[in-house]
Amino acid sequence: MPTIYNKRQNSDGLWEVYDNESEEAVVVDGMPLSGLDELEANEAIRKLKRGEVTSDNIPPTAQSGWPPTKDGI
């Protein structure tokens, strides 16, 4: 199952992109996607969904849909 990304607003009014299942902030290239304005958060989610950037802290199996189903089907 693909990872679902979402955003949440912190008490300081800035936004954070997080993994919906683990509720952890997404990290890309060693930097957490937090302290963003809303447009930046929306753009980060769009890029994550399209595979233009990859999260450092989401297991590869969640990103790719692995493992395959029984008998490779």
From TrEMBL:
**Which ranges are annotated Polar residues under compositional bias?**
54-66
Q: Which domain of life is it from?
A: Bacteria
The annotated region (Disordered) lies at 50-73
Query: What is this protein's name?
Result: Uncharacterized protein
